[in-house]
Structures are given as structure tokens and as C-alpha cells.
Specification:
It contains nine helices and 29 strands. By secondary structure, the protein is mainly beta. The chain has three domains: about 100 residues, Immunoglobulin-like, CATH 2.60.40; about 290 residues, no CATH class; about 80 residues, Sandwich (Immunoglobulin-like), CATH 2.60.40. Strand 24 and strand 25 form a beta hairpin. The radius of gyration is 29 Å and the shape is elongated. The two termini are about 45 Å apart.
Amino acid sequence: MVKKLFFITLLYYCTCLNVIQAQDHVDANQLFCRVLEEGSKQPILYATVKFIGTNRGLISDDRGEFRLPLDLNTIEKIEISSIGFGTKEISVKELRKDQINIIYLKSKVEELDAVALVLKKKKLPQPSAEEIVAKALRRIPMNYPKTPFSYIGYYRDYQQPADDSYSKLYKGKGSVQYVNLNEGIIEVFDAGFGTDYFGDNKNQTLLYSYGRNATFIQDSTLSVPYDNDKKKYLKDVTISPLGGNELSVLNITDILRNHDKVTFSFVDMFDKDFMKNHFFTLEGLSYLGDIPIYKIGFLTEAKIAGTLHYGKGKIYISKENYAIHKFNYEMYEKDKEIKKSPLYAATLEYKDINGKMYLNYLTFNNKFQANSDHYFKVKKTVFDEEDLFFDVYFNRKFDKKTISSKKNRFKIEYTYKQEKINVKEVLIFDDYVRVLIDKNQLLSSPDFNKSTLKRDLRLTIKNIKDIDGNLLDKIPSVKVNQYREIFVQEVFPGKKVDKRLKVMNKYAPLLESEINPLEEKEKYWVNTPLKRNRNN
């Protein structure tokens, strides 16, 4: 059975600090840090960085990296934490500018056998994975806020090539690690869990800054809304375009905030469908500081996923109050997991503030295919009505060997009757080609009309290549991953939206939204990815 996936409109620590020389482009006005696991030296994704003494903080990115401004004013220490690792405090004075500051965290987990042994000694029953998940679902109304709140965070959306199809188009033109990177500071106002994100006018978003980062490659052909057909699509997956608003797409994938609504396959409605669509395995205990958290893996039931796909992920649930701290979901094509990245993936994390769980970060990415505008094509054609020739200019240097002495590369037709007119000669210049028309044949045509000549003559060109071997007018299809990410920097329980401010249109591209002023804007900043050299 083939099923189509969808998204609905309405997812004891190390005490040393190492510093390495930066091989990439580090801003001299910022402190740049990278969080790694002590043993494996692998990056710790989405670690929480809290500014001690404040309610503010930020999140490391998918490389474990984050930036801090040099003028942190009263902030003396930061605390770094992540589920499954020990928490660590660092003095800001220890961090050095013009360097990449390496921060190590030590793993803090217990395997399932160790957990079972402790329970056996205490003569306590071992809850099953299903029992833990079921209890966590029942406790969502108690663990998450039903009253208004807001949060300010760093938001970005961007694209990354999924294979080498895109990098080939940009041969020699620099790194294609990030394409169409848009970023800014936003504030999301939420009327509380149980209210509809799209339907309730108290649920709004304000933009305090947002724009396209011109440091990275820009490609307008990849920025169009999803048509799920030819321009921008993913096979067997339907993605709601929402007018091109990537933040709205991202908000839909928050399965906790939208626990009573359909989100994406095969979580579907988290309350009702998640458990029956998957089977679960208790993998052990992870720790967030001293808080024990169940780590539970899950797989999609075969009868639900069908013959082409399957989903898998992990859910992290507090052992103390059954609050869901973290959720990760990945959807794959069957038999392609080893070589391929997921069709889409959602990751979210919530954190406790005064007994209620609030969003810490939310990420969602999906593959898509699109027809790129970066191909070999005719840039301009100039027709000389007196001497009867075409001058053809291309957008790239052409391979002269594919044109030389081959008049059959050019076809000329006249009027609606498509009368074939011979090409007398083709002259090749450095930056253009001149196609000479058989003047005698054209003038002797019974339909010849000089006043409509420019309109009625049509030149067709085929089988010409550029110097890189690309065929003229062959539109390439590229495979790209679309990312949307929000990293919360401060939460405001009880805060409501000011109706006098300019709210975001949930169904229009963010670049069309108006920007609002923000007091104390220096307290929040964008965590732009580090731009790397092409070979890094």
C-alpha cells in the first residue's frame, strides 16, 4: 500500500575549556563557541546556553556552535546544558575573541540494564515504554501553559543542497553550504495551549528584524511557495505552501503545541494517533542536570506507513512529572536510510519555567526538488531587419566546437505556416553568434511582409553546449533541503500581544511583513552560521 505523506495547514562534567585557532571567518566583534562531547569530540546539537542571573539565553546550532557579542554588560557566566550531558558553567572572561572556543560536556546517561537493576533493588515495577508515553500524553494539559505567554527568539530559514546537483551549477562560485539564508529576531505571542494557532487572533507574531543575508548565495527559483507539482515539490509528500510563510509551516510541526490537531505524517494528531501509529522501546535514562529523563525510541507501524516509507524517532520524558522535554521524528524512504537523509525531520525541545514547559527550540526540515534557473540559455537575440541576420548572446561562454560549421544547430521558420528558411552561414565571435539568413529565399517567399518580419521570423537553437558541457536550455532539477529553525532567547509568562503593533501575516512570505521597533534590542541577537571556506 502506497501512502502519501502530508503536512496540514490547519515536531560530573568536564571542567576544561579549550581554544583552537579559527580556520573559518570569525567576527572579531563576537565570541564564537563550539560545544562538543568530551569523549567523541562530536558536536552537541542545540545545547542550551543560559545567561546566569537572567531569564535569557540562546541555543547552539546543528554544529554545536553559537555566538556571543563582546559587550555582554552584566553577564559574567553562562551555563551550558543538554539532555544526556552534564551541565557546565563558564566565566565569560575565559572566552577569547578571534578564536573558536571549544567547550566540552561529559555524557550523563544510564543504559536500560542499569535502570532495571536499580528498580529491582528498590522492588519497584519497571514501567513499559507505552505506559510512560501514555502518561505523558495525559499530562500535557497539566505540564504546559494554558494561559497567555510570549517568547523572543532567533528565527532563520535556509536551504542546503541534498546532493551534488546544486553545487555543480555553482562550479567555482564559492560555498553552497547555505542558500537563501533569511534570519531575524521575532516575538511569538501565544494565547495558551488549547487555542488555535491560525484561528485565534490572540496568537500572533511580531518581527523585530528579518532579512536575507547577502553573505550567502541567493537563488530566487528556490524561494517560491510549494506547488507540489513541477516548480517545487517532493515525491509522495504534500507540503502546505501557506503563501510561502516558512515560519507558519514550522509552527504547524510543533506536535506539543498542536497536540490536539493533525500535524504531519505519521504523528498525525499527537493525542490520538501517535501511540497507535508506532511501537516503542525504552532505551534508558538521560539526565538534564540532575533531572532523570526517560529516553524512548519508536518506529512507525508498517501497516500505517505503507510500502514506501517509515518513520522513527525518540521522545524524552521526565521521570518526575512525565513532561515531554524533547521529541525527534524522521521520515525515510524504505531501503534508502543508509545512503539518504530523511525526507523530512522535526526536532523540538521544551524547558521548565516555574513549573510549566515552554518552547526552547523547534526545527523542521524537508527535502524538495525544484527546477533551477541556473542553466545555459540565450540571454538576448538581436535581429537586423536590413541585412537579415540574428545576433545571439548567451548567459555563459559557449563551446565553439559545438557550433563550428554546423548550421543545423539553427532553425529558422517564417509565419504561422512555419515555412523553413535556410541558414546561409553562422559566424562565431567571442561573446555571440551571428546567424545569417538566406536572403534570396526569404524575399521570394509568397508571404513575405517586411512590416511584420520581426514578428514572423522565429529562430530555434539546439545542441549547443557551454564550456562546461551543459546543453542549451536543459533545465536542471536540483534536490535541496529546506530548513526552518527557531531558537528561543527569553520567555515571558503572562504576556499578551499589543494590538497596536504590526503583526505578521501568517499566509504571506516573511519578507513582506512589517518590522516593529524593539526596546533593549541589544539583549537579543542573531546567531548567524559561520561562513566556511569552500573546502571546509
